[in-house]
Write a structure and sequence with these properties.
The complex is a heterotrimer of chains A (162), B (82) and C (760).
Chain A: E1 4-10, E2 13-19, H1 25-32, E3 51-54, E4 57-60, E5 73-75, H2 88-95, H3 105-118, H4 124-130, H5 142-159
Chain B: E1 2-6, H1 9-14, E2 20-23, H2 28-38, H3 42-49, E3 50-54, E4 57-59, E5 72-77
Parallel strand pairs in B: 1-5
Antiparallel strand pairs in B: 1-2, 3-4, 3-5
Helix pairs in contact in B: 2-3
Chain C: H1 26-30, E1 46-52, E2 58-64, H2 66-70, E3 74-78, E4 90-91, E5 98-99, H3 100-107, E6 112-113, E7 119-125, H4 128-137, E8 139-144, H5 151-155, E9 181-189, H6 192-198, E10 201-209, E11 221-226, E12 232-236, H7 241-252, E13 259-263, H8 279-289, E14 293-296, H9 299-305, E15 312-320, E16 326-338, H10 345-351, E17 361-369, H11 383-401, H12 405-411, H13 431-439, H14 442-445, E18 452-461, E19 466-474, E20 480-484, H15 492-504, E21 511-515, H16 532-559, E22 566-569, E23 572-575, E24 585-587, H17 588-593, E25 603-610, E26 616-626, E27 633-643, H18 650-669, E28 700-705, H19 727-739, H20 750-758
Parallel strand pairs in C: 1-14, 12-13, 16-17, 20-21, 27-28
Antiparallel strand pairs in C: 1-7, 2-6, 2-8, 3-7, 4-5, 9-17, 10-15, 11-12, 11-14, 15-16, 18-26, 19-20, 19-25, 22-23, 23-24, 26-27
Classes of the chains: A alpha+beta (162), B alpha+beta (82), C alpha+beta (760).
Chain lengths: 162, 82, 760
């Protein structure tokens, strides 16, 4: 069976790859583009470890066909830092010790980034419900929520004009 | 001379129900040898399957650990974890 | 042993231990650069997949692989015929003694499939599609057999028999007939009958828990390469690279030196990755194919063919005087082992009464095989289950006696000098302190509203020590590297760097911790049993102390003074000897720069078998609200007090408490294996196997009580496992207080609560 030729933009860069008809965007990111930061935890869209942002919208990349990425803009964990400068969310996750094994961390960070793009001042409850699609088995979510809300506060500060 | 006790039933199958014994031993290694001499199979069982609590401190595979006279020695099943 | 740290220092004296530096592997983890098991690739790598039995119990009549081998791109097909038929052999290697024959048979079925999902064949191919085609083309003829999963059903005399030669061990008279009861064990003290006669109040209950999975988000993954010269490389997501090496060597009949295992970063284990499933198969496939093979489980496979922990029945009878003094306890535990013997029923019996000073008791445990996946260790294996029964019964006793549940536990609390239920006398424990901490906490006095209830429960876990090796190397610029062999599941490598930095007198950013492969560091028992900070930390500390002794020797020879005239202070050798060099100092960097002149490279290695691991105790408070219409239980507030010995890195200790509590809450409220009439798991995915999500939980308050363990240079005790022990009953006790009905069967899912409310 012949493969699909896909051109898309990933983390601001133009990319091209050939995908099998049944391949998911997660497969393409990991196997064709070498971007292994997005993880497969379940393959069925239930754990959120594969979270990416597709044309500005948070999705599970294991539920998107690779072919569907044609012509679209994708943001993954690899694009979150600005060169050597970590995104405030990444920095706060480290400061708050909001990760233990780190496997769910990329998905959580991408999902949290998507949250703060639509709601820069989420309450604890809003944060918890937004992140309910990202399973973590290690942390009990406590420090994760603290880190996200702390990052949100910092990012709001940074936006206030001097 | 140390007093050796075990609460677990597997131990007592070797000792005909005795849960407490007096044994002449100055180290765990000698204790195991003494138990094997007295109740064939028991020393092997203790060596493979049991941990030794000496004065409340749990030792696993610590054959060199010394046993001072009068020490409290308890044999308990080996412990793992997750 | 040490002239730097003879006794655990008070917190005020320590400069690094007890602080909260950012973990050294953190940047890689938040940028997605860290390499987990499935992230690794080798040139020419093939895709490996497994064919699994669709039947819960069946004889394997024949397996025909010819059509599969003929498919283009298929490079290898293996079955049990490609593995040595091992004799039964119990050996150390994993978390506790394991029967290698059982482990081999669990990896690849021989003659019988014992659960739905049991591996019967494996393939390696150049693509995923070719591998799938090969699996479909393997023809297996099964003779289906009746199956049994529920533990008491499996214990019946007429139950379908899993193993024809399994005779119950531990009975006074060895049985003549084979059964599914692999073993019986019993712990006893005093005279239970007399004890019950003395009691003013007696409570009895039968409690049931379902099988639950460790639920790590990362599925098992490995890449294995069998070299043309028989030298093997394995890259694996595992809690122990040495365990992987030992098990693969045994299962495949190799020397340990022929296998080099590199630990990947691990995406959760909790005990579920203290054994092997894929690695021996990947190696066997690689041998046949002459190429590396990568195998990654799907989530479905993780549920159907790995772990879980036992489902169980717990029968508890307690007797007490009117003032709350326990007079007798009789407990029976029946644990599922899955397809092969080895449930954690023995630690379940040992921990059941560990928090209580009771003169008369009998605790009996049964290890029962069932047609479900072979159970694997899960955080404090066996203890949460027996604690669920005991702590629920204690709550009933408190209600019957009209006594506060914390006061009832204080009345019967173990403390230093008391004999544990499993035998030895307790020393340096902090249990009473945890009870006082929750009793005096504002949470305990906070008001509750309608449909709300508050539950209290306590818990215990041994924690282990064991074999560890650590090496410390000082670099030419005075920075250092710490090398150990323990995979980092929760931040332990940060703790290793901190302990070494403390001893060397460096800041932690100057010390780099590495988790090495099996050829690059001496043997270490795996990461589990809450042992790494304790045992490997002890090895790291001793290695750093050896370095300090060496540095002092070098400085002494430079100054030409006796070695006892040199002290090590804040990262420098200082001369205290009288004479013209008195007061002189040399920094670690200066000594490192001139190491060639004073004897050569500065390195030290320590191998030890750490003893004297301190047990952990915890006391928890849980507030719930029950929705009377839906039966849904909301966790409103949770406070967990724990004796942690010494918190080397407090944030990571809190993390262990948070994580254990969350898993316990999931176990209490929603998680369970659901099997259909054919013995197949119906909910083998995260949609219907419902683990706690962020919106299910509140912030969890962790109270860390430090009663130092004198056996560890910094007073550390294991902390990772105790937190999962109390929550099952803490939640159930809270529900009891909220709805007035005792729920005895977990999980407390909405339909069960609704039924209880309807029956009220």
């Amino acid at each position: 069976m012949s493969r699909n030729h896909v051109s898309a933009t990933v983390n601001g860069d133009p990319v091209e790859f050939l995908s099998h008809p049944g391949a998911t965007l997660l497969d393409a990111l990991r196997d064709d583009l070498g971007l292994t930061g997005s993880k497969e935890g379940c393959g069925s869209g239930d754990c959120g470890a594969c979270s990416v942002i597709l044309d500005g919208r948070l999705v599970c990349s294991c539920l998107v066909l690779a072919a569907e990425a044609q012509g679209r803009r994708i943001e993954t964990i690899e694009g979150m830092a600005d060169g050597a400068t970590l995104h405030p969310l990444q920095q706060k996750f480290l400061e708050h010790a909001a990760l233990q094994c780190g496997f769910c961390t990329p998905g959580l960070l991408v999902a949290a980034k998507a949250l703060l793009e639509v709601n820069p001042d989420p309450s604890e409850s809003e944060t918890r419900y937004w992140l309910a699609g990202n399973l973590c088995r290690c942390t009990g979510y406590d420090k994760v929520i603290r880190a996200v809300m702390d990052a949100a506060a910092d990012m709001r500060q940074a936006r206030v004009p001097a | 001379m140390v007093k050796v006790a075990a609460a677990d039933s597997a131990f007592r199958l070797y000792t005909d129900g005795l849960g407490e014994l007096e044994v002449e031993a100055t180290s765990v290694r000698r204790l195991i040898a003494a138990l094997e001499a007295r109740f064939p199979g028991l020393g092997e069982h203790v060596s493979r399957r049991m941990a030794v609590a000496i004065d409340g401190e749990i030792h696993q595979d610590a054959d060199d650990a010394p046993l001072r006279p009068g020490a409290e020695v308890w044999l308990i099943p080996k412990i793992g974890g997750g | 042993m040490s002239d730097v740290l003879d006794r655990p220092e008070t917190a005020a004296d320590l400069k690094v231990v007890g602080t909260r530096p950012v973990r050294p592997d953190g940047a890689d983890k938040v940028t997605g650069r860290a390499t987990f098991g499935a992230d690794f690739a080798m040139p020419g790598m093939l895709v490996g997949k497994i064919k699994r039995s669709p039947h819960a119990h069946a004889r394997i009549v024949s397996i025909d692989t010819r059509k599969a081998r003929a498919i283009p791109g298929v490079k290898a097909v293996v079955t049990a015929a490609d593995f040595p038929d091992l004799a039964s052999e119990v050996m150390e290697g994993g978390e506790s003694a394991s029967n290698m024959r059982d482990i081999a048979l669990n990896c690849m079925a021989r003659d019988k499939a014992l659960y739905d999902g049991h591996a019967v064949a494996a393939v390696a191919a150049t693509s995923s599609a070719a591998a799938d085609a090969a699996l479909a083309a393997i023809e297996v003829v099964y003779e289906r057999l009746p199956h049994v999963i529920e533990v008491e059903a499996a214990m019946q005399a007429d139950a379908p028999l899993l193993h024809a030669h399994l005779f119950t061990a531990g009975l006074d008279t060895p049985p003549a007939k084979a059964s599914n009861i692999a073993a019986r064990n019993r712990l006893a003290r005093g005279d239970v009958d007399a004890g019950f006669m003395e009691a003013d109040a007696i409570v009895e209950g039968r409690y049931v828990t379902a099988a639950v999975h460790q639920g790590y988000i990362e599925p098992h993954a490995t890449v294995a390469a069998w070299g043309a010269d028989g030298q093997c490389q394995v890259w694996s997501s595992s809690q122990g690279q040495f365990m992987v090496r030992t098990y693969c060597a045994k299962v495949l009949g190799l020397d340990s030196s022929a296998i080099r295992v590199t630990p990947a970063e691990i995406g959760g284990g909790f005990g579920g990755k203290t054994t092997v499933y894929l690695e021996p198969l990947a190696l066997a496939l690689s041998r046949q194919a002459g190429a590396p093979v990568k195998m990654v489980m799907t989530r479905d496979e993780v549920f159907r063919a790995t772990g879980p922990t036992s489902g169980a029945v717990i029968e508890v009878k307690l007797g007490a005087k009117a003032d709350g003094t326990l007079t007798a306890a009789n407990i029976v535990l029946k644990y599922q082992a899955g397809a092969f013997p080895g449930s954690p029923v023995v630690p379940g019996t040992m921990t059941a009464l560990a928090c209580y000073d009771v003169a008369n008791f009998e605790v009996t445990g049964y290890d029962v095989v069932t047609n479900s996946p072979k159970v694997a260790a899960y955080r404090a294996p066996g203890a949460p289950i027996s604690a669920f029964g005991v702590e629920s019964a204690m709550d009933e006793l408190a209600i019957k006696l009209g006594m506060d549940p914390i006061a009832l536990r204080e009345k019967n609390a173990v403390r230093d000098g008391v004999k544990a239920a499993y035998g030895p006398t307790f020393r340096d424990i902090g249990y009473v302190e945890t009870l006082e901490a929750i009793r005096d906490h504002p949470h305990y006095a906070a008001p509750l509203g309608p449909n709300q209830g508050r539950g209290v429960a306590v818990g215990f876990w041994f924690n282990v020590g064991g074999e560890s090796t650590a090496a410390v190397h000082v670099n030419e610029d005075g920075t250092a590297v710490v090398v150990t062999g323990n995979p980092d599941v929760g931040g332990s490598r940060a703790a290793m760097a901190m302990m070494a930095a403390e001893v060397l007198g460096l800041t932690v950013d100057k010390v780099r911790p590495i988790v090495a492969d099996t050829a690059a560091i001496g043997f270490s028992m795996l990461t589990g049993g809450s042992r790494t900070t304790f045992a490997t930390g002890m090895a790291v500390t001793q290695a750093a102390q050896k370095i300090v002794a060496d540095l002092k020797r070098r400085a002494a020879s430079v100054w030409e003074v006796p070695i006892d005239g040199v002290e090590w202070l804040d990262g420098s050798a200082v001369c205290l000897a009288p004479g013209k060099t008195r007061g002189a100092a040399m920094t670690l960097a200066e000594l490192a720069a001139t190491s060639a002149k004073t004897g050569g490279p500065i390195s030290a290695s320590v191998s030890l078998n750490a003893q004297g691991a301190g047990p952990g105790f915890a006391a928890h408070i849980c507030d719930v609200e029950v929705d009377p219409e839906t039966g849904h239980v909301t966790i409103l507030r949770y406070t967990a007090a724990q004796d942690v010995g010494r918190a080397i890195h407090p944030a990571y200790v809190e993390g262990q408490i948070h994580g254990g509590v969350a898993q316990g809450i999931g176990w209490a409220l929603n998680e369970e294996y659901v099997f259909d009439a054919d013995g197949r798991m119906e909910n083998a995915g995260f949609l219907d196997y419902r683990v706690p999500v962020a919106s299910d939980l509140p912030m969890i308050e962790a109270i860390m009580i430090e009663v130092a363990n004198p056996r560890h240079p910094f007073g550390a005790k294991g902390v990772g496992e105790v937190p999962i022990v109390p929550p099952l009953a803490a939640v159930a006790n809270a529900v009891r207080r909220a709805i007035g009905v005792r729920m005895t069967e977990l999980p407390l899912s909405p339909p069960k609560i609704r039924a209880a409310l309807d029956g009220r």
